[in-house]
Amino acid sequence: MKKVPHTFVIIGCMILLCGILTWFVPAGEFSHETVTVNGASRDVIVNGSYHTVEQSPQTWQIFGSLLEGFQKQAGIIAFVLIIGGAFQIMTGSRAIDFGIAAFLRKSRELESRKFFKRIGTDRIVIACSILIFSLFGAVFGMSEETLAFIIIFVPLAISMGYDSITGLLMVYVAAHTGFSGAIFNPFTIGIAQGLSGLPLVSGFEYRTAVWLLLTIVLIVFTLLYAGKIKKNPEASPMYKADEYWRSRKEKSEENTDSLRKETPLSAWIAFTIISIITVLFSFKHPQTSFTMGSRTFTIVCLPILSALHFISGIWTLRKSYLYYILDILAFTMIFLVVGVLGYGWYITEISALFLAMGIAAGMAMGAGANNIAKEFIAGAKDILTAALIVGLAGGIIVVLQDGKILDTILYALAGTMEGTSRGVTANIMYAIQTTINIFIPSGSAKAALTMPIMAPFSDLVGLSRQTTVLAFQFGDGFTNMITPTSAVLMGALGIARIPYEVWVKWFWKILLVFIILGSLLLLPTVYFSINGF
Questions:
Q1: Between 463 and 280, whose confidence is greater?
Q2: 16, 44, 163, 323: least CB-packed within 10 angstroms?
Q3: Are 449 and 35 in contact (CB under 8 A)?
């Protein structure tokens, strides 16, 4: 049997290939200017400003690109390590194992009812998880945030009799499917429409239908695959590799019932500290404003959450420290959503939130400071491979940029649109955005680079600028789930312990269906009158 190259080898070969291209592809650059889009400054390309520059072939620099890749992706790398350490502290408390076991017992009890028995509670859990995370991706662009949930949903999928791929589909792929069919996503739709001179969230009616269709397709794919794995676990390409998760599940089942259920004094201390902090935040931020598209809602959010935490904290602490740690986890996820939507949190604030969660969980189980530190280091060490992959993948972009061929590739791709019909032009734009996404997985950066070129060109061929935005949206979203330059993908695969080569071999068929669907969904916007297009 032919051995598949290691993920590190695949990324290394791609860096080497990009280095070779810098010797043969003509070097060139666009001029840039700073514009204000939706109140934020963006560095964008000046249309028609492409010019050749002195060739900059990369030789020994490809080795230096690895360090630069780590520097560029430092935020994601640190985020992955902190997530790994924080969840290791919580895992050490056995609260997650306890919660999953309790959840599965409750779900099995529901199957005694005719309705749930016919449908299957596991199928309901899968479908609802995909729907929720897809909605998060479509509305506020959930991406990096999924890394924290993978550590929870992969063990849950294993416990339900599925595999790690099913767990990844429920969270990461669901969120990025929503990202691809975004309704309001400010990081893609907001920037692209702003640069194209379109009203914010215009055309959302058609995009909502697109999002729903893509989400349904993913749910169907996942349920079919999960059903296949349930019947024959060895059919999973991750069957052997998932032994890590299965062994964890077996250990948790052996020891969950024997867990001590009392609540140590340190848990009450943790509760008191968290309560004081949430009350202080409530006084500082009595109201929270959530922006959904062009509408803003103001809610007395933090005071309500502070009161709920106080009530649920006392109730769970009276039962067991395990329940209170799960309560901490639940409120961490709620505050994550509030922080992202209401206060524009990114990885700095989110990593701080999860670090605090880990420390609070350690206190709640009565662990000393030294034990908490040891657990954190063990978690960071366990997930170090994922962090290394993220940094190495960043080196691909560095070589293309330092070799000054990235703009040349963009310019050459844009030239393929000349002299084509509207329908063909829309799909060429889609193909261009899909290709560029391999090299520039960041949606906001790609919008700033491509929309100043695409939007004016669409006017020349009689194509709606809204269609151009949709082509960008599809091209930006789908291939994020397979390109090795995506830091979030590599981090997600590392956390789920799915080798990149296994993921590509398994996922490419689903990706192909999504890409074809994207091409077909562009056509109605070209040939029919749709609101906003």
A1: 280
A2: 16
A3: no
